[in-house]
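Appendix B, record 7
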Amino acid sequence: MTKRKNERSLIPLLAVLGIVATPLIFILGIVAGSQIQLANILTADSLSSWISALATVAIAVLTFVLAKETWYLREAQIEQVNELRVQSIRPNVQGGIILC
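Structure tokens (predicted):
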């Protein structure tokens, strides 16, 4: 059970790292490309549009990951509340004596 939880917590971390690394690699590619005179293909306007589009996609994916993790936390909270409700109803028995 703990292995499954570790795997589930590792997947969002890897997704976030990938999402953050993608624009950085893209920007590094642009810098490297400008050094080999490929800057004539992309104008400054189209380049900024591509960067804005990639940033928007990254924010959308991060929002999805955040929503998914929030959903998991909400499920865990509901499970905890239900367990506490059951424990509060259950009588406390010690040595044959019921304690209230």
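Remarks on this record: The first strand starts at residue 92 and ends at 94. The mean pLDDT is 77.
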